[in-house]
Amino acid sequence: MTFPLGGDLPVNRVGYGAMRLCAQPGNFGRFPDWEAGKRLLRRAVELGVNFIDTAHAYGPSCNEELIGEALTPYPAGLVIATKGGVEKTAPDKVFPDGRPETIRRRCEESLRLLRVQRIDLYQLHRPDPNVPFADSVGAIAELRLEGKVRHVGLSNVTVAQIEEARGIVPIASVQNRYNLLERADDPAVDYCAVHGIAYLPWGPLAAKPFAPDAPLARTHGALAWLLRRSPNIIVIPGTTSLAHLEENVRAGRLMLSDEEFAAISANNA
Questions:
Q1: Which domain holds residue 86?
Q2: Cα distance between residue 142 and residue 186, in whole Å
Q3: What digits encode the pLDDT tens for the residues 227-238?
Q4: pTM higher than the cut 0.85
Q5: Which of 23, 94, 144, 151 has the least C-beta neighbours within 10 A?
Q6: Helix, strand or coil for residue 245?
Q7: Residues 100 and 136 sit within 8 Å (Cβ to Cβ)
Q8: 3-class secondary structure, 148
Q9: Is 58 tagged catalytic?
C-alpha cells in the first residue's frame, strides 16, 4: 500500500516516527544507545519503510543527526520528513516559535544534520499564536522556492488553517493527533482525503495500551484500523524495539474487512 506524497513521492503507508530515538523523559537529549538507534533505522529501511518522520525539537537536533549518520547515503526512494517551528529547551519546556527567521535557521540546520541538499517534506510543527500563521507558512514557501524544501506540510492545525495555508503554497501533508480512541479530527482526515493530502496521525496508538479484550486490540490491529480508515493515511508509529518495529510493519499486510472495521470502530468509540 502506497500513497503519492505531494503527488510525486510514492511512500509505503507504514512509515516510522523517529521521536522515540531520543533520551527520556521528554525526548530530550541524545539517544543513549546511539549504535542501536542506527541499527533500528537501518532495519526499518530493510523492512520496506521508505518514510521517516523527525523534527528539530526531537532532542533537539540530535534525532536528525542520528538519522543522517545512520542512513546516508540515502537509498533511492527513501523520504525523510522533518519539522520546524517548535523549540525545546528542557524535557518540560516546549514552545512554538513560528517566526520566519527561526524557521529558516532551523531548516538550514536540518539540511546539515540530515546531510541532504533538499528536505523532502518540511512541516510547520505547530502554529505560533504570537506570529501570523501566514508568515510562518510563507517562510516555508520561500524555502521551497529556493529549492531547500521539496514539499510543505502542516502539523497540529485545523481545517481552516489548512485552507489558509493552501492559499499560500501547495500542502502535501497534515500531521495531527488521531487514533482509534481519539477521532475528533475526522473532518481533517476527510478534508485531506478529498484534496489528495497525506494525513499522518501522531499518537496512532493513543500512547497507551488498548484493553486486552477489545477486538483486534493488539498494536498492529489498531494500526490496521487507521490504514483502513482512509487511503491517504500514512501511519508513523515509533519504537525503540526491533521486535515492535517488525510488528508495526506487519500492520501493512493486515487487511480489515468492512465488518471487522465496523466492529472495531463501534467497540472503541
A1: 2-209+231-239
A2: 31
A3: 999 999 999 999
A4: yes
A5: 23
A6: helix
A7: yes
A8: coil
A9: yes
CB 131 within 8 A of CB 98: yes
Is there a domain that residue 63 lies in?
yes
Residue 215 in domain: no
Kindly report the CATH number assigned to the domain that includes residue 205.
3.20.20.100
Q: Could you say which of 58, 74, 178, 199 is catalytic? A: 58
Per the domain annotation, does 248 fall within a domain? no
Q: Which residues are CB-neighbours of 164 under 8 A, at least 6 positions away?
A: 133, 134, 137
Residue with the three cell numbers 525503540: 240
| DSSP H stretches of helix in 47-132 | 62-71, 100-114
pLDDT digit string (tens) for 23-51?
999 999 999 999 999 999 999 999 999 99
CB-based contact 134:163 (threshold 8 Å)? no
- pLDDT band, residue 252 (cuts 50/70/90): confident
C-alpha cell at 60: 533537539
| Position 150 in a domain | yes
**pLDDT (0 to 100) of residue 217:** 45
What does the block give as the cell for 175?
500531521
